[in-house]
Amino acid sequence: MPYAVELLNITKRFARTVANDNVTLRVQSGSIHALVGENGAGKTTLMETLYGLYQPDEGIIRIHEKEVSIRSPHDSIRHGIGMVHQHFMLVGPMTVLENIILGAETTRYSLLDLKRTTAEISELAGRFSLTVPLNEKVENIGVGIQQRVEILKAIYRRADILVLDEPTAVLTPQEAAQLFRILSELKEEGKTIVLITHKLSEVMAISDHVSVMRRGKIAGEVETSSTTPEQLAEMMVGRRILLRVEKTEKKAGDPVLSVSNLSCIDKRGVNVLNDVSLEVASGEILGIAGVEGNGQSQLVECITGLLRPTSGSVTIDGMQIAGLSPKGVFARGLAHVPEDRIKRGLVVEMDVAENLILGLHMQKEFGSRISMNRRAIAENARLLITKYDIRPMNPEALARGLSGGNQQKVIIARELSRNTQVIVASQPTRGVDIGGIEFIHRTLVQARDAGKAILMISADLNEILSLSDRIAVMYGGRIVKVFPDNNVKESELGLYMTGSKSSSAQRASDG
Amino acid sequence: MISQIFSLAFLAQTIRITVPYSLASLGGVYSERGGVVNIALEGIILNGAFCATVGTYYTGSPWFGLLCGIAGGLLVAAIHAVISIHVKADQIISGIALNLFAVGITKFVLELLFQSSSNSPRIAGLPYIKLGFIQNQPDVAHLLGNPLVLLTVLIVVASHFIIFKTRFGLRLRSVGENPEAADTVGINVTWYRYYGVLISGVLAGLAGAWLAFDQHSFTDGMSAGRGYIALAAMIVGKWNPLGAAAACLLFGFAESLQIQLQGGTLPTQFIQMIPYLATIIVLAGFIGKSVAPGADGIPYEKEK
């Protein structure tokens, strides 16, 4: 079969790093080609080079077996390449229609010919089952629909080579399944698809070929039918990796964290939390699954003192903590791994050692009211950096310069080192690479085995299913379902997460 | 009393004040819709007024002077564009610097050409179109027959269509809201931002020319904060041409009301507050949230 895309010996250097080092990638016409690798392996850079956002320092690009020069997205669009970026490239205050035609407008008497374009796009949308509300503003539609808009945008420009960067990162399982159906249809129509992902289950499910990147180089290329997820993971990381979290049966003790009838009405008067009750016992992990924006963040904020609940109670070992300040909650034995590590977990302009004592800075061992005990802080950093394998192993490195995985390890090291009864971990491995995920998961399971009560919120169903001892699903500010173990199918969780299924208000108590 | 205040003369006064506001405010709309904050409007108006005066004085042709006014505005806008878009410097600071620069340079050249640091010799105004009605009030007739009044109305209406209904407007808005998204669909962000700023130079330059012709001379610092009021009107008008023009009309109305009421029974200090009170009341009470274009004021860096 002929090649649709050939990237030959591409090298791209940035100021200090080599993002792509002599990379060669060939994609067969009419196939779905998965490009996998850890964060920072160079997948996105490679594809953005193909799309003309970067100029390669060395190497040539061939499209449909002809050498081409791609100096800007304008050129790549002309060569039939479309890209759906991980962070959607949409203009929020503009309508879906305006976004689709932007840069490829049809005019009539020098005014935009919206009538004709609407007809054209509706036809395309119908053909590929990409239903979108054309006259709605993009900022008012969900991410699943926004993604369709991105795909339509590419097809409207007559793209026959479509690159998708981490397309399922923001989708529910149902939306992801639908996306894969659409991709299959596009393939049927003869389009070539490159899929950047790090979810190996997706690779196995939909791709024909897989290329694996590691540290800017191609670590291997295989046919999907002749490989396994384990083999791919090993190629990605460069060592054997455990895809499944190893954990023993839980030995749950008494409930420690207890939330009852917690409600919260936000500034706009919306009931963001609606009568939520749950209990987490020592020695167990309660996982909260849900599409983002269904009250999980507010639940965590109410528990950790960042948000004042309208009614209800939160107790640790029977002590009321609802309505206390974060400092008060902290003092009563709660550790918090926040969902947004840049915004709430770290002060990125401070170094690792300083970040490792954030919130602990008032403790006697680290300093008095006036001065800090530099030696104790450095010693603490040295210990934690070793224990949690934080790279680089330099306590004076600025947090900003660390990879996402290592930033996350700094937070987990700090919070777990406090040795509290309760740990609230929100999206503990978001944006963390496979190696880091393995480490963080192992650490959380160890904490659970040591008798901690862990409340984990995650949008990643794999994570929920592999770590949780019990699973609660949140939808519309309520807990709509509690599963007594983790023996649940993803699709089943998905139904509750999207509100298509719900059981009458259940209490997530009684482990 | 009421009929004394709201006379034809009052209407004329309102229009006289509103025209330069509207032109400059529309200039702000083009610039900021494209993502470049333009407080240099003040300096553009001033330089436009100065160049219009000089052009008219030396050629005797107000039409040539008008072109000079536009060129004078374009020049300042071009400097602002290069600093903001090409050099990617802070747009507020560039704007302030240019405003101060315009004050100095116009005064300097004024002194050089006319041996006066405060005002220029008298110049002719634009010829007006003879209107069949209101012959008994020549001032009002001249004003309504002024081609720039007509042009301003046309520009306001046309701008609405240009910004919201044309390819150019769609692209301009996209580079102001999300330049990265525009870039990925092959739109040249730099060009469109230049277009936006340069158009603001033309329009605010026209505003300056209006001031010069209206007064038949240039005086030192004659822009007198109009660029800032125009920016306020742009924000009150939510960055929409029609909204901005309506806000300018409101400001113009309040200002001429203030002028009319002076010398009456109310203390002048209260009367002088009218335009500002009106601004505050409108901003706080009626407009609701006015949201700037997403990338307004942020230089676009291509390689992250």
Task: Explain what the structure shows.
- With 511 residues, chain A is α/β, with parallel strands linked by helices.
- Chain A folds into two domains: 3-237, Rossmann fold, CATH 3.40.50.300; 255-497, Rossmann fold.
- Chain A is built from 17 helices and 22 strands.
- In chain A, the strands form five sheets. Chain A has a six-stranded mixed beta sheet with strand order 6-9-10-3-11-12, sandwiched between helices.
- In chain A, strand 16 and strand 17 (319-320) form a beta hairpin.
- In chain A, helix 14 (404-417) runs parallel beside helix 15.
- Chain B has 304 residues and is an all-alpha fold.
- Chain B has a single domain, classed as ABC transporter involved in vitamin B12 uptake, BtuC (Orthogonal Bundle), CATH 1.10.3470.
- Chain B is 72% helix and 0% strand.
- In chain B, helix 3 crosses helix 11 (226-236).
- The model of chain B has no long low-confidence stretch (mean pLDDT 91).
- The interface between A and B is medium-sized, with 29 and 23 residues.
Query: Could you tell me the radius of gyration of chain B in angstroms?
Result: 19 Å
Kindly estimate the percentage of residues of chain A that lie in beta strands according to DSSP: 25-35%
What do we call the CATH topology of chain B?
ABC transporter involved in vitamin B12 uptake, BtuC
Count every beta strand of chain B, where a strand is a DSSP E run of 2 or more residues.
Answer: 0
Largest interface: A-B, 29 and 23 residues
**SSE order of chain B in H/E notation?**
HHHHHHHHHHHHH
Task: Give structural attributes.
A: 511 residues, alpha/beta, Rossmann fold, six-stranded mixed sheet, 17 helices, 22 strands, 32% helix, 26% strand, B: 304 residues, mainly alpha, ABC transporter involved in vitamin B12 uptake, BtuC, 13 helices, globular
Short description:
Chain A is of the alpha/beta class and 511 residues long. Helices cover 32% and strands 26% of the residues of chain A. Chain A has two domains: 235 residues, 3-Layer(aba) Sandwich (Rossmann fold), CATH 3.40.50.300; 243 residues, P-loop containing nucleotide triphosphate hydrolases (Rossmann fold, 3-Layer(aba) Sandwich), CATH 3.40.50.300.
